[in-house]
Amino acid sequence: MGFGAAMRGAFxxxxxxxxxxxxxxxxxxxxxxxxxxxxxxxxxxxPVGFMVGVPExxxxxxxxxxxxxxxxxxxLVFVDNxxxxxxxxxxxxxxxxxxxxxxxxHVYGAVREILAVVAARTGAVVEEVEVPFSIxxxxxxxxxxxxxxxxxxxAVLDAITSATGLVLPIGELVAACRAHGVPVLVDAAHAPFxxxxxxxxxxxxxxxxxxxxxxxxxxxxxxxxxxRDRQDLTPLVPSHLQRLGxxxxxxxxxxxxxxxxxxxxxxxxxxxxxxxxxxQAHNQALCVEMAELLSRGWGVTLPSPASMRGAMVTLPxxxxxxxxxxxxxxxxxxxxxxxxxxxxxxxRTWLRLSAQIYNEISEVEALARVVEQELG
Length: 376
Ligand SMILES: Cc1ncc(COP(=O)(O)O)c(C=O)c1O
Fold this sequence. Notes:
Number of strands: 12
Number of helices: 15
Shape: globular
Radius of gyration: 21 Å
Bound molecules: pyridoxal-5'-phosphate
Structural class: alpha/beta
Order of helices and strands: HEHHHHEHEHEHEHEHEEHHHEHEEEH
Distance between the termini: 40 Å
Strand content: 5-15%
C-alpha cells in the first residue's frame, strides 16, 4: 500500500487537520482501535473471566513483542507510559546524599521533575550536562557526557530527545557508562519502531519506551526493560503479584483497562504488514525532505545533521522568535488546522515536525505559508 494521502483513511484523524506531530501522542490506526474495542467488549461480557486471564495474556504479548526490541519477553514489563517507566526506576533506587545523577540539558521536562523530586528526598544531586544545539555530530554528545561520568551514581540518557528531536548515540553512551561502572537508565520514549532497537546488544541497566507513539498502539502503552542482573525492581504500585517478583509483579497493579496493552499484537500486525523497515525509511526520508524544504524556504540553518535525526526534526523559525512566543504560536497554528510543536529551547522558539506514513510534503509547503503569515 502507498504512503501519504492514501494512508490517511487508515487513521482516525479529523478530515482537513494536518497532523505533523505524530511524535507527541502518536496515533492509533482504526484497525488497532477496532481490535481494542473487541477486547473491551470481551471484558464487559465477562469481567471476572477476562481479568483473571490478564497476567498470563500480558506475558504472551510481551513474548511476542520482545524479539522485535531485541529482548526476551521476561525482561520486559508493561507500564502506562515512559514517564512511569522512568519514575519506577528512579523511585526504587536507594540513593544517598551527594549521589550524582547525570543527565543532559535536553532531558524531557517531566523526567527533570522526577529527578528533582528524587534528589530532594534523598539528597542526591542532579547534574545536567550541557549538550550544544546546534550540534555537528554525535561525538559531541559522547564527549560531553563521558567527561561527567566518573564517580556518578546513575546516568539518565535519552535515546531520542524530545524538544530537539535528536537521535543520540545511545549505543556509545551506554558503552561509556558501562566503561565507567555507572548504571544507566535510557529514556527511549520515542524509540520503539521509530529507530531500530536491540536491547540485549545495547546492554543498558534499564530502558523504557512508549508503544503509543511510533508503534501505533493505543494510548497508555509503554514497556520497561530491566537487564537480567537489574531486575530487583518494585512496581510504583505493588499489588497481588508482588511476591512473584519481576516481571510478574508488574503484571497486575490493581484494576484498570488493560486493553491498550492487549492491543499490541494488533499494532504489530499493522506495522508488520507495511514493513517496519519500510515505514522507518519512508519517515526518515520524508523528514529530510521537510527539513530541507523549510531551511531553504526560510533561509535558516538546520541545527542537526541528518544522521542525528529519525522521523522528527527541530529547526529554527524564520527570524529569531523569542521563547515566550512558543505556546501562543503553537495554539494559533493548531487553531488553523496544523498539529506541530513550537518549543522553547535555549532562549528561542523552535518548530518540531514529525513525519509519518500519512504525511505528504505538500502539507509542509502549506504549513510554511501559514507560519509566515502568523509571524507577520
Ligand atoms: C524523551 C521523552 N521522555 C519521556 C516522555 C514522556 O512520554 P509519556 O508522556 O508517554 O510518558 C516523552 C514524551 O514525549 C519524551 O519525549
